[in-house]
Amino acid sequence: MADVVCAGILVADVLGRPVESLPPRGKLSLVEQIELHIGGCAANVSIDMARLGFSAAALGMVGNDGFGDFVVRTLESNGVDAGGVARTDAAHTSATMIMVHGDGERSFLHYIGANAEYREEHVDLERVRGAKVLHVAGALVMPGLDGEPMARLLKQAKEAGVTTCLDTVYDATGRWMDVLAPCLPYADVFLPSLEEAKCLTGKEEPAEIAKVLMDRGVKTVAIKLGERGSYVRSADGEVRAPAYKVRAVDGTGSGDAFVAGYLAGIISGWDMERTARFANAVGALCVTALGTTAGVRNMQDTERFLATAEPLDAAD
Fold it and tell me: How many domains is the chain partitioned into structurally?
């Protein structure tokens, strides 16, 4: 069975670069690149884990369409077990139009699609129970699984001795803690972005945010801080790890790459500081190529990068 099972959103991404503005209505603009890539938190993290040398499975739902075929085929071609991916006629495969600006920042148009149809009964519990880690990827944008059903999934995994991890996507509906609260007592590790964590807790500083989440039951909080690196806190202490200097091409997927690096540290039994630094390195390398996973390298290359990487001064 897999080292890591990633259950969550699966997406087909259409990326265009560079896009600084939309053309006037009815007009056309040219870009240097348009490419089709796989995306979605569950897909990204599972592929990143496989690239780092771990066995990974993806769970989720896609439509019976061309994008769905592409998602499953891409997972399998990257060494990910896609046998637990469900198919549906009720919706098309989720897709995102990603407009990558010249500095690597991105804007998005998203169709939730089949991700909204994924429910508790579709989850392959045999794969979950056989994993070392269950990572639920994309909470707050899976209406069929969010809330109590997701909490039950995490609880079942913990009861089977599986380490549980949880990540969120920005909630445009503003429900935040109302939906996520039942899940937090069953999350061994929670890995939100700073913006998501602020919205969840109403706090601004990482230490205050982590305290609120730990009071809700989370064992370890790892907050993605972008150019400021990451902040990790557990009952054993806290760590601030720097980001690293790279030439940014596309920031898409960097948060999921950080998650994969953090999960790699958990499986490898590393301490909190080594894990955070490695996760930052995986995230940094991710932004050096177009797409959500293309920049992620294997364990050895990532370790070599980390050995000589220069910390990024966020004030630069």
Answer: 1
